[in-house]
């Protein structure tokens, strides 16, 4: 017994681990990294359509002189800073309420709150546009209450268009994130909560002292995913506001898409902008992992 | 110890086998399923082997697909073996697929014929010269199409598209609203935008309804006004024509006047635009003639609408009352294995059959092919539009549309001008905004 | 909990649920109205449902699209769960510095917008002859950094003492995974299944590029087709969207008990 055997055991476990993760890692390598490397090479070329010539780092310097792209970076970060924290906190609160064993109709509540993200994009876009239309229900309500004198055209004003996008994102993705918290909460022994109750902890104390620390791995997951999702935000910008008014709500991914398929295609430039997104997300995710990915 | 190691290896191998097994399984299964479900549809690549089948991509079942099926019937009379495989594909998806295929150098996924938005023709032919077939000497008589329409798909003097649906601009009005303001449709025929605004104010006063609604941030009306004076955002040599473009300046000023006077109301989205028409929130609209189909969904308003030409710009040289918005043309791809069949099919249907155009008239598809307009079907009165023979009228309009330069960078120009007009309406200086728009377009062109 | 607090909680849940469901109510009521009524903003259900259904069935091959969507979504979900949970388990249970680094690298794979990698991927798939095949449809999304990370994070709460006990009993590593990990992590699997199914069901851009036959059209493609005409029939469109939404909603409803009342729920 003793040392030598332990060594082989851990080495064997080490090897087993690699076997387990091999298929998944291999697929990601082939399906994501190979195309990514090709896209990276493309980002050092320029040209129209399929006719591309090397151009050094021109695409990377170019994007910071591109007023529309710079605007899109600002917009995207605005969404990120406002929307992600609100959404995650809200999802956490909902999950901890809906985790309550004695709650009635919890299955129904959960399903209703999840439903928005199951809705297909087309419906969601049509519905939101109609809610915020000049003669839509929101305007009707605000005028009748007396907050507004006459209908306000939400999607054609800079700030209200951005806020509509944030509201739409919150509506659509809060229930989605709640799912992860709900499932994460199941891995916490219920007895921990009972003990806290006996000790006289309030609901708020339990939330901060027990729920949040124990959900930390899940919170990290959702934070990274939401950051990634928001920096690559596309659907809302395209379908709700079409980036308008005057590019006030356009996102980076929307602009990259335009550059690839709507405008005269410039794939080198589009690839370079895509790699800027990679760098931004990677830095943010790295910071989040530094803070949150510690095994106690 | 060894036993465990072996079991791990076996497990790993099993997994690998399972993965490839699944992959292989679905890989072989899929083509079989495709053949099983293929019914009448043959793969595009098989077109060459004596079979007379063409694959077509287009969108809108009621309109474009219907037209293709009718064309198939017409052509089948002389060619009983002829078959079409029409794959319904939205325009954005056609663009994505064409771009992807052309960029990756594998054109084999492309169909024989596809429908292309007129505004995207220049961009696609220049960006992907290998995709579209040159149809100039294919036996199709392009001279019989309206000149303004054909110009969209002519690049360097070569024809790449067979013009299809008509996008001639019409101005539609609710005659019951006009009546309340003491006006008739004649007061809106052959007028200028100054007169339009004057009339609009009267209508607004009498009924509280604006004369026209437009989707904010989309510059459809701007582009229609530009073309009505034969002007464009680009020069013959492809360079941007924005900064010192007097027509553009007049157009932007006119648009602001329309908005400021309350005659024009901006709405948030396309849905809302259509909604404002069918629910009677506005007294009219100006758009491509295809908008009539949407207006006619409001069955209760039958007989209350009338149609005429659009107002002309004041102060612009070459101003007319005619323009164009939207529309599309058929392109033949280089992937087509039987190009003689494809061109002959198009030549004998969309460029040679009044019967076809008569048959698709009911769906609202109006010809840009001149001989079709002489058909008696086009003279049939339309009850919805007050018993007017609108079809013949629109064909007549389309022959008067000035042609202009679309430009390869059309969408870039359009978006830049949309931004400029939004800022201008909100109080920015017009010269500054035009300069910014020009800078944006020049930046995109790499200058 | 006091009565007042309880009431407040239910009220809060009702308001949130109402806001979540209202747009869907709108969708359902739109599916029963005429197009012109929908754009005019009518909110009450009408009597046009069967007319819309008839038009939709005449206009689009909904049955085939539903069949395709189910086929792709189910195959993708099953394979994806196996591959990703194995990997997530491998990353966490046998974690060391090297594996943590590999995990961080794998995360990079999701950080580039798909638009940028789509064309190289298409090139690879066309060389491999996978255009218009099921494998071409599912392969790019079988293994996702997201799912792997999700399983890695939840494996963190998989009790190590149970594993040690199982090893002492002589269970092989793969059997520990199948016999102990999967049953214990039921709630994670149920959540992952819901999310994967939903993503597979709604996937659009890649399928559109790789599938060019009308025989392989899926439900989201049918919905997209309906928005393309010169005239949009909103009643019919909303009915199609409703049909497209229901399967995910049903999957969620069936699985929510499994993931929200996982292990502890079973042990009352």
Can you tell me the CATH architecture of the domain at 73-263 in chain A? Orthogonal Bundle
Head-to-tail CA distance between termini of chain A: 29 Å
Radius of gyration of chain B: 26 Å
- Parts with pLDDT < 50 across at least 5 consecutive residues of chain B: 1-49
Shape of chain B: globular
Q: Strand arrangement, largest sheet of chain B?
A: 2-1-3-12-6
Protein described:
The complex is a heterotrimer of chains A (296), B (447) and C (268). By secondary structure, chain A is mostly helical. Chain A has helices spanning 3-42, 58-62, 67-98, 106-118, 121-131, 137-145, 158-185, 190-198, 203-214, 216-231, 235-241, 252-262, 267-292, and strands at 45-48, 51-54. Chain A is flat, with a radius of gyration of 24 Å. Chain B has 447 residues and is α/β, with parallel strands linked by helices. Chain B folds into two domains: 45-166 and 326-373, D-Maltodextrin-Binding Protein, domain 2 (3-Layer(aba) Sandwich), CATH 3.40.190.10; 169-323 and 403-444, D-Maltodextrin-Binding Protein, domain 2 (3-Layer(aba) Sandwich). Helices cover 44% and strands 11% of the residues of chain B. Chain B is built from 17 helices and twelve strands. A five-stranded mixed beta sheet of chain B has the order 2-1-3-12-6. In chain B, strand 4 (154-155) and strand 5 form a beta hairpin. Chain C is globular and about 70 Å long. Chain C has a domain at 61-226: MetI-like fold (Orthogonal Bundle). Chain C has 15 helices and no strands.
